[in-house]
Amino acid sequence: MAHQPIEEWLASHPLKKPGLFRDGYRRSAVDEVTDKVVERLRTNRQYADLIRKLDFPAAPRAEAYDRQAVDDLFDNLKWGSDPRS
């Protein structure tokens, strides 16, 4: 487990881009949810309602994050696992 607080790690952790010739989830939509989660973590508030049912729009590779990386991150947060490990 990392020594950096989870909210700081989330705020600074870059998500990978999709592979060549692949689309992914729109970065701005993912960043918006991530920023809200970080804000709630910093204020010691619950964030489960933000990640309960995510439906990110698709985007071309140049404007996207890898779908699996995003899904893994939010699944870890949803189920209480530490995404840093």
Explain this structure to me?
The model has no long low-confidence stretch (mean pLDDT 92). Helix 1 packs antiparallel against helix 2. By secondary structure, the chain is mainly alpha-helical. Strands 2-1-3 form a three-stranded antiparallel β-sheet. The chain is globular, with a radius of gyration of 13 Å. It is built from four helices and three strands, in the order αβααββα.
Tally of contiguous helical segments: 4
Number of extended strands: 3
Strand content: 5-15%
Q: What class do helices, strands and sheet pairing give?
A: mainly alpha
Give Rg in angstroms.
13 Å
Terminus-to-terminus distance: 5 Å
Briefly summarize what is shown.
This protein has four helices and three strands.
